[in-house]
Structures are given as C-alpha cells and as structure tokens.
C-alpha cells in the first residue's frame, strides 16, 4: 500500500512538474514536456528516449520536493503508523505476566485436602517414584553394538542377516521375544534361551566391560536420594550384566528396585516391566514417572498409565514429541518438574463414594407390524 501511494503521488507530480528559471529581464513559468517516469526505490528515473534539452531543462527541478510530497501523501493515507513502528507499544494486554513465569507453580499442592498429614506428604517427595532405563539414560549407549551382535549371531547360526528396519523394531525387546516373534528363528524354549544367552555374550565381548555414565546422571540420582524419592531401574538386560555395570559406575547402593530380563515375560513396548516395578515400589502407576530414551519406552509408559520423560541420547528431540517432557540430559530436570508431572487425579485422593449411574427407562419394543391408515 505504501508503494502504491508513493507511485501514485510521484506519477501525478512527475507528469507536468513546474520549475522556475531566473532571467535578467523577466521571470516566467515554463512547463516541461510530458515525462515518461519510472519509480525505482526512492528515485524518480526519466526514460532514455528524452532529448538532452529536456533533461537539461528539468535538471533544475528539485528531486527532494517529490520525495517530501510522496511522504506526506503516505502519512495521510496511513496515519499513526509512524508512532507504532517507533515505540512498539501496541495497545492491549498479551496475557503474559513476567512475574508469574518463574518460579513455576507447584501443582502438587492441593488446598482442598482436609487432612494436613496427607497434604504434607503430597507436598513432599514420598508420593512419587522414578523408574529409569539403564542404557541411554544412566550410562552411554552405543546402538551399533546390539546391531553387530545380532549380525554375528545370525552368521554363527547360518541365518540370513536381519535388515535394518527389523533391527530397529526389536530395540528394547527381550532377546527371547525378538527371536520368536520378530526374527522367527525358533519356538523351542530351550533353543531360545541358548540363542539369547549367546547374543548377550557376543554383545558383552564387543563392549569389553567398559561403561561410561552419562553427563548429569550422577547428580540427578544424588538429588533424588537427598529428597528420599524411590529409584528403580527397569531393563531387558540380564541381572548379572546390570549388577556388573552398576558396580562399574558406582551406583550399586543407590537403587531401591532392579527389574531385569529374568523378572518379566515380555519387554517393550509391552508395559509389563513398568507395571511390575510399580508393584515392587508399592505405588500406583499414576505416581510413577518413567525416564526412557525411545518411543517404545513412551508407548509402554503411557499404556501403564505413567508419565514419561524422554532423554534424547540416540534420537533427535523432534522424534520424541509423544513424551510428556523431553530433555537432553538428566541434570535439566528438577524436583518441581517431577511433581508437576505426577500431579494428576488418582483414586487415593478421591472421596471413595461411587458414582451414581442413571438407569435408562426400558422402552417398549417396536412392533414389526405396519399399520395402514387407509385400511381404517
């Protein structure tokens, strides 16, 4: 709109501009011939087909006059634009109060609770538990090790190497579950147990017994211990491997519950593992928060009615959007974040009165005999 108004003003002024030429005998007003003008940016350009005489006669015409008139027309067309663009003080309230953004509100407090002891426990940290996955959350995870272990096992057993999409599908599953349901190598329980043990042995040999704790994991676990929050680890690795890894990183005395592959029948995305951890912690599922690193962990946690925090260790942030909260490291979490995630309505805070259901009136069955009005 600004360009149109400037173009209109300059075209009207540039068609027959006036200029004054001083002479010794008299002063007269002359009119330049019709100009073919073109607006380029803020300059008025004459066409090339004008004669040199015309250009010399029009050279005295002040160009700043056209600019000033065009700016005046623009201000008249859009009044008040200059004031808005200078101060950026737009009227109206955006609804954001900077004083309310920090610290975040504590949703764990419920003033409607009449029992002060229950309210104090709710304000504390004894009403929620944290369930960690091991690899990719507590310690560094190399997904290429597991893929190489499956390829080596397939070569030893004379099987065709599984493609990449199959290897991605069996991430997080128990070895027996992956062998029988996805790879379909055997249905014999003894054979499945032998293949699963051999696969773990190959993977441990490739790892070489080296474990590195992730940055921020030790600090966050110490924070949970200081607030007396129960900590559990759920993994599809054998218990022997988990205990060896915990001793290597110095966390063998920091965990309350450990659930390994021997304790469950199925792995992720089945929620059996997380439900069993909640039973051992003596918590309802709504009061448990799962910390995983894959979409299968998010799916299993939500199926178990638990909140999930995803750690972007081997997947980018945009692929973990289904989680309730996504972080890069565990030290980005706080106790307030955990309380807000676990602040949901649950049966332990209900009044205990059953909901009344309205009984629907029985309607008489519709007759299948049609009535002809013309008959009567």
UniProtKB/TrEMBL annotation:
Segments of this protein annotated with the region Disordered: 346-376
CDD domains, per database record: HAD_BPGM-like
Composition bias, Acidic residues: 347-362
SUPFAM superfamilies per record: HAD-like
A Pfam match: HAD_2
InterPro entries attached to this UniProt entry: HAD-like_sf (IPR036412), HAD-SF_hydro_IA (IPR006439), HAD_2 (IPR041492), HAD_sf (IPR023214), PGP-like_dom2 (IPR023198)
NCBIfam families tied to this protein: HAD-SF-IA-v3
Identification of the protein by name: Uncharacterized protein
